Amino acid sequence: MKLYGFGESGNAYKVALMLALTGTEWELEFVPFFTGGTRTPEFRAINEMGEVPVLVDGEVVLAQSGVMLEYLSELTGQFGGRDPGERREVLRWLFWDNHKFSTQIGTTRFLMNFLAPEKRPEAVIAFQQGRLRAAYGVLETHLTSRDWIVGAGPTIADLSCCGYLYYPEPFGFSREDWPAIAAWLDRIAALPGWKPPYDLMPPAFA
Ligand SMILES: N[C@@H](CCC(=O)N[C@@H](CS)C(=O)NCC(=O)O)C(=O)O
Hints:
The protein is an alpha+beta fold and 206 residues long. It contains 8 helices and 4 strands; from the N terminus they run βαβαββαααααα. A 4-stranded mixed sheet has the order 2-1-3-4, covered by helices on one side. Strand 1, helix 1 and strand 2 form a beta-alpha-beta unit. The chain is globular. It binds glutathione (GSH). Glutathione binds next to helix 3 and helix 4.
């Protein structure tokens, strides 16, 4: 399989991690994001949404990391949840992650790290961090009484929600403030085949 991505993309990392944990053979198609790699006509022909990641498996071309995770769990029979009820729960958390969590973290991290210092909108960053504190609270509460987001073992809900939390660049998240999330991140990192983001894909930011 071919994954279009780059190191800083937490959305690409979720899929790269799933590929690594399931032992699926894959190669990276590196996208030079910070110099407009997702805005070219060639890239838009692959993904009209103009977003990384894109996963190509023969004739199958997928955009949206959640769709890729679902596809890979179906294909490999791993991390998908054990029954229809668990699969619905997995979907619920994938939607939450895409709306309230990873998307907001990605934007906040971009503004704080990859934008020139004089262009960083401090009021927007503070607003985003406030929204994110509420989201960390939701996940922390959920994980206080359980080891995994859904059911008794790791699923793609965990792989989706954890994606941005292993990055070294600051965006307002600190493991000390959220002990249940911190313990969960350690559990995921202990899964055989786990690797941190920049070990799976090189950074694009020069
Ligand atoms: N919900 C999408 C989000 C993808 C996304 O936001 N990708 C970023 C890079 S991490 C991107 O390519 N953004 C381009 C843009 O917003 O113009 C997913 O999970 O795949």
